[in-house]
Fold this sequence. Notes:
By secondary structure, the chain is mostly helical. It is 77% helix and 0% strand. The relative contact order is 0.14.
Amino acid sequence: MQILILELALFVATHLIPARPALRDALVRRLGGVGYRAAFGVVALIGFVLIVYGYGLAHAQGVLVLYYPPAWPRHIAMLLLLIAFILLPAAYLPGKIKATVKHPMLVAVKTRAFAHLLVNGDAASLVLFGTFLAWAVYDRISLKHRPAPAPVKGAVRNDILAVVIGVIVYAAFVWKLHLWLIGVPVIA
Length: 188
């Protein structure tokens, strides 16, 4: 469990940089815009892979179960996760979804974390998804204190594409991808 916590600390620390404009601007000046985004992306990806590894390791070592959730929230979680999978590509495909939600990536992270908290009662899941939920809430609040990006008008085809991509990736996760990546089947 300690490895999971350390990896979450690395991931969150990396993702707190944009919430600190002075630090972010200093890094952009030093690395350049492309260099900053590349370094941020590499560190975030490494952090995410390590989190998956740490979560799997925590479960392999046996984690404390704090509560046993009832069966009925699974249906709510499945719907919330479908929405999260649609919001994820919408963050990168400007359209009505992005304009309406404003920060679809953060809403997707919060939705995904909340859905997982509904159906997982073990300590590792609470630490992992509680951390993601807390970070996303903090980051959303911090966005109110940063300069707002210029509104981008997008095509309706981007919304259609976000829905199609989201549904396909969601279906792949439900079918087998969650089992392959995380080791837990979505539908048992």
